[in-house]
Automatic annotation (TrEMBL):
The keyword Acetylation does not apply. Residues 516-562 form the UvrD-like helicase C-terminal domain. This is RecBCD enzyme subunit RecD. ATP binds at residues 189-196. Keywords: ATP-binding, DNA damage, DNA repair, DNA-binding, Exonuclease, Helicase, Hydrolase, Isomerase, Nuclease, Nucleotide-binding. The lineage of its organism: Bacteria, Bacillati, Actinomycetota, Actinomycetes, Propionibacteriales. A helicase/nuclease that prepares dsDNA breaks (DSB) for recombinational DNA repair. Binds to DSBs and unwinds DNA via a highly rapid and processive ATP-dependent bidirectional helicase activity. Unwinds dsDNA until it encounters a Chi (crossover hotspot instigator) sequence from the 3' direction. Cuts ssDNA a few nucleotides 3' to the Chi site. The properties and activities of the enzyme are changed at Chi. The Chi-altered holoenzyme produces a long 3'-ssDNA overhang and facilitates RecA-binding to the ssDNA for homologous DNA recombination and repair. Belongs to the RecD family.
Amino acid sequence: MTDLFEPIDATDARLALGATGLLGEFNTAGVLTSADVHVAAALGRLGRESDERVLLAVALAVRAVRGGSVCVDLATVADPPDLPWPETAAWTRVVAASPLVAAGLVRWDHDLLYLDRYHEQETQVVDDLLSRAASSPDHDPDLMRASLERVVAAMKAAAVARGLPEPSYGEQVAACLAAAGQWTTVLTGGPGTGKTTAVASLLVGLLDQHPGGLRIALAAPTGKAAARLQQAVHQEAEAFEEGDRARLAGVTASTLHRLLRPDPGNSTRFRHHRGNRLPHDVVVVDESSMVSLTQMARLLEAVRPDARLVLVGDPHQLSSVEAGAVLSDVVRGFEGRADSPVAALESTHRFGPDIRALAEALRTGDADTALAVLAARHEAVEWVDEPDPASRIRTTALDAALAVRDAAERGDVAGALAALDRHRLLCAHRDGPFGVRHWNRRIEHWLTAETGDPLFERAYVGRPLLVTANDHQLGVYNGDSGVVVLTPTGPRAVIAASEGPRDLAPSRLGDVETMHAMTIHKSQGSQADVVTVLLPDEDSRLLSRELFYTAVTRARSQVRVVGSEAAIRAAIGRRAQRASGLARRLATAGSPTEEGVPPSRA
Ligand SMILES: Nc1ncnc2c1ncn2[C@@H]1O[C@H](COP(=O)(O)OP(=O)(O)OP(=O)(O)O)[C@@H](O)[C@H]1O
């Protein structure tokens, strides 16, 4: 869903000067921005199209990408309804017959309108997935079974030694056996369903298959998620036999961006591509729900056709910040297909029963059960439904901020970074009374009142940091977190990068924000012991089931939901819809032919 805007006055920069007719009307109503209008008008001039219904459709396709969609579906786009939307049948007819479509400036396909670039990426992703599914790697299933038996026996023994009941790894073994026999595997599951455990077990099994060695790459869309993946794989391997543990010890993770090697001269291209593939034999990408269509296209063209690709993620989470909802589209698109690469893990092993019950109710859209879990006053799930929740938020947020500050004052880098993950205040919005900016300021005021530290200091000791842009030179990436720590040479910004902490002069960091509070979108791929989810009013257009589910599942041991029953119901009742043709394209593509080339590519 794309936000509407309300023009402030006639000089508002979002209003397109001179826009008339339908484009002008939709611009004034806050549906289209001036950029949408200008791109549509420019394409119209280029392709000699003057039908304002077509130009409106093109402007909506531009807007769609801004809102995370890959294309626009003219049959469902009419929101808000009180605008002069063209009648659907006639509209689709004029768009399909437009000279813009004939010239390839925009694409009309599967009754959806695309900007050319996204159409190309979507068809490429479908073609690459299908051609990878059309053949399978040679492997020895008996050896794979034996490897997994060894790993499972070691993990069971480790659990029993810790006084835990003997676990069962049936789902994970089945997923690994399937993954051994296919070039692409999509390993799905909610938080704590044992995805990382399965990945570590799979890697051991694949190493047994290739005694000569395997080049393995672990990657994730953000630095934080990459660091977590690497740490989690090694942690899970602790339970393995010494030889297996040693073989995984050198496996490291990086951001997806770094893996593909950015091309300094071209911000949308990488050094690894179809003509210069990645050298790795196995590529594992965690948090795949955050991978945009563009990134997925780049990844699929860079992975060798004879390398295994394992996409790991939770399709019920929010999608990527940029356009696309690739993971959930791929899962839906392969549903029922014989060549489906999806292996799903269903049982949760991490949460206590209360967070699990809440997450499950959110995942399935069951508002009554979610409210019942929230109202039951469990220790692990708390509900704050008060007009001014500040006093309830203050204690937890301030304690966590003080713990970070105390460790930072002592120069204890590891302690300060660890304290960052004790509590996270998550907001849907950036601005306004429910937004990140407001709550960051508020927590800083509380901190100042408690410590007497000056408020105006930008790099105050204990300031939690969130990196908001990739900086290859500094080796810090969008989504990395860190903290300002006192050192003998003064305050230093220490960022938890995927290769370990990076120590920088605070002034060198350009794109950083304070992270006492953060948006739910930015929290993807990270976790905290205690999570406070601050829901906005029920009429917020950002509220969605995926947003709420993503926020709740960031919590390791306790979650507190701040919001009214109406806001909770509104969030659960609304889906974060993203228009894309990926699922439909996969579902309707022919099955692989015997030669291994799917008909859509032939
Ligand atoms: N089959 C199992 N039985 C019991 N415990 C398990 C099983 N599989 C994994 N675990 C344990 O459950 C916890 C979560 O597992 P893991 O980290 O592999 O899940 P995940 O799906 O990768 O989680 P997330 O996506 O939230 O990071 C770990 O402590 C792990 O050791």
